């Protein structure tokens, strides 16, 4: 996505839907906190509640732009030298909802500044994700 403004993207986002992966399985109330660093990188703090263990889990990472910071294509690492893609593929003009795809369509998140949104808006965003190639049969709603 071009025209990206990282300063407007920072802050807290809530995960409303995702394609589940090992590092998030069973987590509810998932949020991501983004903050800009002086060196142009972005600190990422993901937090979610593990229903099985009845405890909060948190992962801290660092993201770097893959090129021009006005293009929302980053690589993020939570585990040392291992990086994954973080590509904002859809973002409303007010920076309130975001669709994110990883290195492949196997990684997808629907993020919002709010813990809830109207059902019609939620469906429209999922339809947008589907038009980008996301398999909605693999997407699960995340309880907030």
Structure in words:
The protein is mainly β. It is 12% helix and 48% strand. The protein is built from 2 helices and 9 strands. Strands 1-2-3-4-5-6-7-8 form an 8-stranded antiparallel beta barrel. Strand 6 and strand 7 form a beta hairpin. The longest helix is centred in the last third of the chain and has 13 residues. The mean pLDDT is 96.
In short:
This protein is mostly beta strands and 144 residues long. The protein has 2 helices and 9 strands, in the order αββββββββαβ.
Topology record:
Blueprint: H1 6-9, E1 11-19, E2 27-36, E3 42-50, E4 55-65, E5 73-79, E6 82-91, E7 97-101, E8 108-112, H2 119-131, E9 139-141
Antiparallel strand pairs: 1-2, 1-8, 1-9, 2-3, 3-4, 4-5, 5-6, 6-7, 7-8
